[in-house]
Amino acid sequence: MPKISEIFVLQYGHSLELNRLEQSDGPDSVNFVGRAARNNGVTAKVKRIAAEKPAPAGTITVALGGQGGAGVAFLQPFPYYCGRDVMILKARKPMSDQEKLWWATCITANRFRFGFGRQANRTLKDLMLPDAMKVPAWVNSANLDRYQGAKLPAHTKPVLLTAPKSWKPLALQDLFTIKKGQRLTKADMLPGNTPYVGASDTGNGITARIGQDPIHEARTISVSYNGSVAEAFFQPEAYWATDDVNVLYPKGFQLSAATGLFLCTLIRLEKYRFNYGRKWHLERMRESIIRLPMTTHQKPDWDYMEQFVKALPYSSQI
Amino acid sequence: MTSKNERKTEALVRDALRELGYGEPDNGISVEEQKSEIAKVKSLLSKASKNAKGNAGYPEFLVSSQKDAAFLIVFECKPDVKKHESPARNKPIEYAVDGVLHYAQHLAKHYTVVAVAVSGSTASSMRVSTFLVPAGSSEYKDLTNESGEPVRDIIPFDDYYRLASFDPDVAKKRHSDLLAFSKELHELIWTKAKISEEDKPLLVSGSLIAFMNNSFMKTFSSLAAEDIQEAWLGAIKKELSNADIPQAKKDTMLQPYSTIAVHPNLGKPDSKTAKEYPDGVFKEILSRICENVWPYINVYHDFDVVGQFYGEFLKYTAGDKKALGIVLTPRHVAELFSLIANVSPESKVLDICAGTGGFLISAMQHMLKKAVTDEQRQDIKRNRLIGIENNPKMFALAASNMILRGDGKANLHQASCFDDAIIKAVRKMKPNTGMLNPPYSQSKSDAELHELYFVKQMLDCLEPGGTGIAIVPMSCAISPHPVREELMKHHTLDAVMSMPQELFYPVGIVTCIMVWIAGRPHAKSAKKTWFGYWREDGFVKTKHKGRIDLYGKWPAIRDHWVEQYRNREVHPGESVMQPVTTADEWCVEAYMETDYSTLTQEHFEHVVKSYAMFRLFGRENEQEQEAADAED
Question: Which residues of chain A have a CB within 8 Å of the CB of B475?
């Protein structure tokens, strides 16, 4: 079993301090790799500095300390700067990205050894890795380009946003029939695959999968009115909604993913009106007003909304 | 080195200083010429010669005062007005302004310095420029008067002092010094004296009152540890008897202090404590307060020192903030109240839940600022601030707070604000401005103590047409309650502003400010109510200092808010006018138009992207993220 230092050259990172750098999103900005365990270890994007050369793409970073990131390895696909206590690993012989990811996974498997009280500075180089001859065959056949193109819009002809000032106000009750959700405690949840929509602002509002039959139809909008208020999500599948969530059924029109997302954006805009002292309960939601683009016949211009959303990045995936 | 003509300029300055009373005996001011006996000044100037050769150098005049050992005035003189200042202000040998700034910047390491450059050899041709260098800063700025005009004459010491402490940078430094000290003091009291939470601020305020007594101030350090508590209480008693308060109130006020005066840990030290503090902990506490806090009281009258300590001490403990529903009003909110009410020397301000007196003190400052004559000042302090506080300990704090300012004490009452006799007496004084932060949510079962009953009680005390302002939980503006009808039956709801969600951090309560016109039935007034969305006050939460105005955004936001309210402006996303009844919600969120001008394509892109991510990766992605978060 080889040591890490037999496969990689270990080298201390730049040890830059993030608060001394200028954060930037500009085209010339550089990833800053800290001791985080997520987002590939990248904690910020910063302006390039003349005095330091970024580490090259294709190297692996390992955080040596820190609560979360100690011992976690990431393959860096872009040039980057490092914060304190980040080691840079450079392969001794040329290898594919797939193989580098394999080694990163093996190194990360050792993260239990490190943590708050024990840094990896001195011992990292001597960590034992699996035999280089025994890299599983599936490693090199992994497809790293599976998500290429996800960012593309559904169609490429850009559609401009018309001036929201020219849009017309409509009460939610004129657009939707609003129904309540129903509480289901954790103890009563059965294992299964029905989406369970809670008052969450992430994961399309879905907080669990349950075995019960869905109580709401697909292609509706879920809106939380308690907890994390006014999180509106378009639900593509039939689902169960908890009692902190109201469900909007379109009245006399079909909701597509694109028009649904357009509406969700506008519903979320009302968030500021509510807090835990003032909830968006059913009566308030029925009377709430949003503005929508209209056709010349003073009907919501669903076609425009559809086309507008389908020209946005990632809309090929909806 | 000094030329003959420069002597003339010096003589002019000397005469001016004498005329303005700098030389009078017993005023605590000392004027030194071309030297200084103050050790710290000596060391700061030991290498400050203007030729930058590292020799000692001294300005022509150096004025210091016993009042505040951290404040200096320096003068630099040049005979020729042409040598008043160089364009870049970097030729200290030749030019007066350049020279005085040179010295001031050396001294500013420890002192807040007023730098005065004087040129000219006759009184009529004399030119004067005045600058301020706040302590710890190397930046200088023009010293200006209250209306922003630069000072172009030599003025009395007290005026220099007042204008310098008026400066926001100086005030900020002073505040952070006090904050640092209150932490240190808390630590000392906590570890060595074991005083209960609510007695701590009393210990501070009592000590400050005791220091008003000259003989205690001079002798406490030579007293034996076992005698000091008695002397302390005696000094407070004496100062209270000098104060212009009725006997009954003096007794109520003294009561809370007597607990501290018999506290065993503050008396003769036990053998363990004696190793560290042979003279007892109390003496240590007293001398630290004397050194670090007393100057603020003595000098800066615009500062709610006791309130500051109370707030600081509360921060470390659960304290009484939950049990009694007491939440301390943040100071910038007290300031906001005075501006909403637009208090003036004609106002008569009532606070029926006075607490440590924060609203009254803030109102007093604003009223005094607008006062012109001494008579008005006296009138404000004596007749125009009325407070009621139920809790005897809080009352003692509020009263001591007022005594330390030498004012207002006669109209502070220790009683329930629902006591008929007191209310009758208060009504007789005809207050026309009410300010209120009632105790919050004193149990749902006790409906009589609903916050709005306090509001009603305040409004019922005010003269018809007077303004009553209250900060109350959001639920008061939304949930139906019979008292809402009672309020509108007699008074007009003028305005309601939704406040920042975390205003009372670390206490989690969402609040709004209500402004009422007393004694005018709402239906009869038949006017629209103004609603403001005041959710962003620029404050941020910090690790050690709580919620503060870290980026200095507050003054601009405050002025914007007040202007909006006074002119009843209506902007989407900021404010709205709406007629309301008892059945309606009284908050901006219900009526304001959403500001669609801020809606951009990015809003849509964000929604589409997170949906696309969900479609691509489902919930796995989220779960991984959560796991990573938990370990971070």
Answer: 277
CA–CA distance, A105 with A99 (Å, rounded to integer): 10
CA B592, CA B604: separation in Å to the nearest integer? Answer: 23
Do the beta carbons of residue B512 and residue B469 sit within 8 Å? no
Q: How far is B597 from chain A (nearest CA, A)?
A: 7
Instruction: Return the closest-CA partner of residue B229 out of B270, B271, B185, B266.
Output: B266
The Cα-based distances of B401 to B5, B247, B380, B404 in angstroms read 52, 18, 16, 5
**Best CA proximity match to A221, nearest among A182, A253, A271, A176:** A176
Count of alpha carbons within 13 Å of A58, Cβ hemisphere only? 8
What distance lies between CA A257 and its chain's CA centroid?
A: 19
Q: How many CB atoms lie within 10 A of CB B383?
A: 13
Pick from A201, A278, A280, A307 the residue to mutate for testing the B interface (most B CBs within 10 Å): A278
Check CB contact under 8 Å for A262 and B590. no
| B185 SS3 class | helix
Q: Given an 8 Å threshold on Cβ–Cβ distance, is B619 in contact with A209?
A: yes
Partner A contacted by B614 (CB < 8 A): yes
Q: How many CB atoms lie within 10 A of CB B570?
A: 17
pTM over 0.80: no
Distance from CA of B471 to the nearest CA of A (A): 15
Token code pair at residue B93: 């040998």
Given an 8 Å threshold on Cβ–Cβ distance, is A277 in contact with B475? yes
> CA-to-CA distance for B304 and A294, rounded, in angstroms?
57
All residues of chain B having their beta carbon less than 8 Å from the beta carbon of residue A275 are 474, 501, 510
Task: Say if residues A14 and A49 touch (Cβ distance below 8 Å).
Answer: no
Question: What's the distance, Cα to Cα, between the start and end of chain B in Å?
Answer: 68
Taking CB atoms and an 8 Å cutoff, what residues of chain B touch A147? 616
The Cα A233–Cα A222 span in angstroms is 5
CA-nearest residue of chain B to A197?
B619
Instruction: Give the single-character DSSP code of B191.
Output: I
- How would you write the pLDDT of chain A (318 residues) with one tens digit per residue? 889 999 999 999 999 998 888 888 888 899 999 988 888 999 999 999 888 899 999 999 999 987 777 889 999 999 999 998 899 999 999 999 999 999 999 999 888 888 766 788 888 888 888 888 888 888 888 888 888 888 889 888 889 999 998 999 999 999 999 999 999 999 999 999 999 999 888 889 999 999 999 999 999 999 999 888 999 999 999 999 999 999 999 999 999 999 999 999 999 999 999 987 788 999 999 999 999 999 999 999 999 999 999 999 999 988
CA distance B452 to B459: 10
Any CB–CB contact under 8 A between B620 and chain A?
no
Q: Are A265 and A143 in contact (CB under 8 A)?
A: no
Residues of B in contact with A318 (CB under 8 A): 608, 611-612, 615
Identify whether the C-beta of residue B457 lies closer than 8 Å to the C-beta of residue B417: yes
At B500, list the tokens: 């920042």
B631 in contact with A, Cβ within 8 Å = yes
Is the bond into B264 cis (omega within 30 degrees of 0)?
no
Tokens read off for B229 = 């508590």
Q: Are strands B385-389 and B349-351 parallel, antiparallel or unpaired?
A: parallel
Q: Enumerate the residues of chain B whose CB falls inside 8 A of the CB of residue A203.
A: 614, 619, 621-622
B599, A164: Cβ pair inside 8 Å? yes
The shortest C-alpha distance from A105 to chain B (Å) reads: 15
**A291 interaction partners in chain B (CB closer than 8 Å):** 594, 596
